[in-house]
Amino acid sequence: MKIEELLKDVEILDIRGIDGSTEIKEVFTDSRSCTAGCMFIAVKGAESDGSEYIIPAIENGAKYIALSEESYARWESKLKGTPAVIVKNDRKAEAQIASNYYERPSLKLKLIGVTGTNGKTSIATLLYDIFTRLGHKCGLISTIANYVNGRKYSTINTTPGPMELNRLMSEMTDDGCEYCFMEVSSHSIDQERVSALRFAGGIFTNITHDHLDYHKTFANYLNCKKKFFDSLPETAFALTNLDDRNGKVMVQNTAAQIHTYSCSRMADFMTRILEQDINGMLLRINGVEIWCRFIGKYNAENLTAIYGAATLLGAPAEQLNVIMSELHSVSGRMEYFRGNDGTIAVVDYAHTPDALENVLKTLREVETGGDLICVFGCGGNRDKTKRPEMGAIAGKYASRIIVTSDNPRYENPEEIINDIKGGIDKEIMPRTLFITNRKEAIRTAVMTARPGSIILVAGKGHEDYQIINGVKHHMDDREIVRNAFAGME
User: Fold this and answer.
1) Which domain range does residue 397 map to?
2) For a Cys-Cys bond, which of 40, 205, 341, 472 suits 62, CB 3.0-4.6 Å?
3) Residue 342 — pLDDT band, cuts 50, 70, 90?
């Protein structure tokens, strides 16, 4: 690709040693991947500075460097005449160059972004399922996995970096995909990973306490989410949740066509829960009754967002109503396992105070006569302020609590558990256990549950690993539950 095409719409401060006809063979942001004649983009990330790897990139064959003015001033003496593109914003430049390099695939797709604290994975995944069932070729970019027309790819981040994002979407367009449903994390918005993409629609789920270790304040977190809607074009739709107090805030400055959904007030897409039990709930969505295999108000909100987005994208009403009644929960999201004595274990990704409260409150409303046991922990090297809050929430709703490890990462798991313990009232302590080993905690919950009890195993959901001292170990809550019910552990 000629460099003038590669740099289209990139905010450039200066170009040194390069003319417009220069051909760029490949583009990389990882110096280890660099090959002869490629361009290396040096991006200052949250944890590392890409400019530190300019020399290794050149040694591996990089012929051209794109970097910020600050990084150029720092490394100019060691570049030794290496052709360079000095950009105004290295993160935005990376996003735009990645889009250009893959020939702007987001322009060839109906790209729908889902953002918020909770519900992103369920909404994006179920929309992917719906439109696949409707006969469309689709792509999915999510926390659990990425899909290109049914082909599954593993994922590391909720929203990949710009090069991987555009590579995936390029594969989607090459394969004839019409739609791409994508989780948009606050980190990806703040780090400009999605800034060069054109979205056909955006969905806001909710915003609650999370990621304050990164954003520092709730206001920063909120404004980061709002930035996504501020950037939507007027040709897109913005579908927002009126049941969240910040639902209107999200879209107050958007150029997109605003649509609303709610389970409690007037909106473009309205839902009422008519009845529910442990097996599902009967909903009335815009006047149509649909039985769904989900429970809880927060799932009703998610399903309303899904219904609204599908309708805005032109899904035929009759087919949509049938498909909605056939949908199953997403992996690790309110996933059920049943023991022979009527005990039910629910594995859910709930790892924020709001998510944990939503799930526990819902299970309390549909409990089957036994105890409600909550097994949970909190991740290490993440927001510490939510730990006692989650302890208090567990104490409010659960009959019994077992506090255990989540992903301690580089923290001492005992210290994390002590932080959670600080939020649990003294009168609740007699019905609380502290078991650091997560497998033992889950096994204890299953082995000691009275017949008919519900066990919530919260925090890790679909994850099949546990990170201890920075090392991933195999750990799958669902596998442990199944084996415990079968008497294998």
Assistant:
1) 335-485
2) 40
3) confident
- Could you tell me the strand order of the sheet in which 151-153 lies? 151-153, 146-148, 138-141, 179-183, 110-115, 201-204, 237-241, 257-262, 269-277, 280-285, 288-292
Spell out the alpha helix ranges (H) of 280-373. 297-312, 317-326, 353-365
Q: Which two tokens stand for residue 126?
A: 């179920």
Q: How far apart are CA 343 and CA 366, in angstroms?
A: 13
Residues in the chain: 489
CA dist., res. 359 & res. 160, Å (int): 28
**Per residue in 25-46, pLDDT tens?**
899 999 999 999 999 999 988 7
H-helix or E-strand spanning residue 421 = helix 413-421
Q: Fill in the amino acid letter for 22.
A: T
Any idea what the CATH number is for the domain that residue 199 is in? Answer: 3.40.1190.10
Dmax of the chain from CA atoms?
75
Residue 352 sits in the same domain as residue 241: no
Same domain, residue pair 270 and 399: no
Last residue of a domain, one of 70, 95, 120: 95
- Kindly write down the DSSP assignment for every residue of 235-274, as one continuous string: TSEEEEETTSTTHHHHTTT--SEEEEEESSS--SEEEEEE
Name the token pair of 30: 């990882």
Can you tell me the distance from the alpha carbon of 111 to that of 107, in angstroms, rounded to the nearest whole number?
A: 8
Calpha distance 81→429 (Å, rounded): 67
173 contact partners, CB below 8 Å, separation of at least 6: 105, 108, 109
Whether the Cβ atoms of residue 247 and residue 267 lie closer than 8 Å to each other? no
- Per DSSP, the three-state class of 395 is helix
449 and 395 together in one domain? yes
Give the DSSP H or E segment for 79. Answer: helix 69-79
Residues 159-188: tens digit of each pLDDT: 889 999 999 999 999 999 999 999 999 889
Q: What is the DSSP letter of 117?
A: S
Q: Which of 291, 326, 361 is the last residue of a domain?
A: 326
Question: Three-state SS for 434?
Answer: strand
Other CB atoms within 10 Å distance of the CB of residue 22: 17
Between β-strands 400-403 and 432-434, what pairing exists: parallel, antiparallel or unpaired?
parallel
The rounded mean pLDDT for the chain is: 94
